[in-house]
Amino acid sequence: MPPPPPHRPGAAPDPAPAPGPDPAPALAPTGLGVRIEGRLDFAGGWSTPPFALRLAPGVWTALLGPSGIGKSTILRLLAGLAAGGTLIGRIAADDGAPLAGRVALMGQADLLAPWLSVLDNVCLGARLRGARPDRAAATRLIADVGLAGYEDAKPRTLSGGQRQRVALARTLMEDRALVLLDEPFSALDARTRAEMQELAHATLAGRTVLIVTHEPGEAARLGQALYVFAEGGIDAVAPPPGPPIRDPADPAVLAAQAALLARLRGAAA
Amino acid sequence: MALAGRVGRVLVVAAVLVAFWQGIVWAYDMPVFLLPGPGRVAEVLLAQAPSLAGDALITFGEVLAGFTLGTGLGATLALAMVARPALARALMPVLLFSQAIPFFALAPILVLWFGLGIGSKIAMAVIFIFFPVTSAFYDGLRRTDPALLDLAAVMGARPGRVLWHLRVPAAMPACASGLRLAAVYAPIGAVIGEWVGGAQGGLGYQMLLANGRSKIDLMFAALIVLALGVVAVYAAVDRLARAMEAWAEGR
């Protein structure tokens, strides 16, 4: 079989139905469906088997994999950034338009500018684009993430959890249809992480979210569609029953978490 | 209290050094034309205060002008090289090559170009600080967290805005180090300029003159004025540098 052509931004949308789990979109006024398919070539000569990853509009898709497997490469390709691997295939949004300008990114490091106040950090995107920041909207979002009154605080005076809340507010301020989360909560302690998962799930409602994580529990709790990226390739896995966000103590969620872990470990063995 | 303690420590160290100096003069029975004692130097310092003050004004005028010009030029070139990587690739070898030139040997040419007045001395100070300042600024501007630059790219940032709103603030601590280097190097450049470049005044010129006339006491007096001035310049620049670091860290 000849390899598919290299990915071109703005390629036509894919008419074929997605093979992965594609649950009916929930309340998705601003969500954007995206499909990434093909294979990844990495430096050093190894490639993934062909895969198709479908981000259904308005829901959370979790991409689970061990550290160093290259799952961030997929996220960086979607973000339009230089990545460690090359996609031989394509990325297509449902509406056929390019993704550039419709993506927001939030990573493990909060990346707050230490010299800027919380409010100015939330307004960073507008300032970097040369636009006038909507400070009233930023103030509302800061309140939404539970930091009302901290607008003028400098990042160094905040705790790790608070800083990640500011990063979330900055992500929300971008108001993009596709939100990419790259292990956003992995540097937080367990309690703060659970709180941040709930807060992110509530505030990002309606958007298409891809969360890249190495935590089976996080994927089982948040993912409406699950993909496992391991040495054998990228495979869709059935999520636990019921819509996210799920109770981490729910036996079905715990079972899904255990199954995901077994899958990760089995693939590595 | 902390300030009083610091001043106290400095005074103790100064007293020990002066005592050591006087001790050598006594122990080896040094003649005045080889090593005058601290008392003799203090006398000359007081007697010659007006003329030394005039020389200090000239030298530190050169230092200040050289510092301002050199850091300004260095910052401008560093910004240009970060904004246009092709420029950096073209200029970096030239900058490195320029460091292989013994600046001492340049002084006569600088006098031809900038005259016997303070112009050639300012030029010498600029030449001395230009490379350390430019490379410190340039390194700082290039070391912005790549993840932050990725975030800016996803946000759809304009390159000029990234330079001004992210790279420059993030480079402030490196710029502060560059300024400290410049504060140390600028006086060396100015004094060497006065030594080699046929000066008409200034502390370096005065030292050379006093040396030639075997007025070692006057030479030491000028040296002490120079050293005190350099410390004052460094202290002032260090305050500025600390303020820049504090701002960049959000303190």
What would your notes on this structure say?
The complex is a heterodimer of chains A (269) and B (251). Helices cover 31% and strands 20% of the residues of chain A. Chain A is of the alpha/beta class. In chain A, strand 1 and strand 2 form a beta hairpin. The two termini of chain A are 29 Å apart. The model of chain A is unreliable at 5-29 (pLDDT under 50). Chain B has 251 residues and is mostly helical. In chain B, 84% of the residues lie in helices and 0% in strands. Chain B has 11 helices and no strands. In chain B, helix 2 (38-47) crosses helix 11 (216-248), helix 5 (103-114) packs across helix 6 and helix 9 (172-196) runs parallel beside helix 10 (203-212). The longest helix of chain B is centred in the N-terminal third of the chain and has 35 residues, at 49-83. The A-B interface holds A 76, 79-81, 100-101, 103-105, 107, 109, 111, 113-116, 124-125, 127-130, 154-157, 174 and B 145, 147-148, 150-158, 161-162, 165-166, 169-170, 172, 247-251.
What labels describe this entry?
heterodimer, A: 269 residues, 8 helices, 9 strands, B: mainly alpha, 11 helices, globular
